[in-house]
Amino acid sequence: MIDVPLSALEVAMVQTGTRPVETLRDTTAFAQGLEQLGYHRIWYAEHHHSPAIGAFPPVVLTAHAAASTSAIRLGSGGVLAPHHAPLTLAEQFGTLAALHHGRIDLGIGRGPGTFDEATARALRRGAGPTTDAEYHDDVAAILSFLVDEVALDPLPESWLLASSTAGAALAGKLGLPIALAHHIRPDNTRAALDRYRAAFTPSRWCEQPRVLVCVEAVCAETEEEAAWRVGPMDVVKSGLLKGLSEIPFPTPADAAVHSFTEAERQALAGFRAQQAVGTPESVVRRLAQLADETGADELMLTTPVYDLRDRLRSYELIRKYAEATTAP
Question: For 309-312, which contacts have Cβ atoms below 8 Å and span 24 or more sequence positions?
Answer without folding.
Answer: 310/220, 310/229, 311/30, 312/29, 312/30, 312/33, 312/34, 312/37
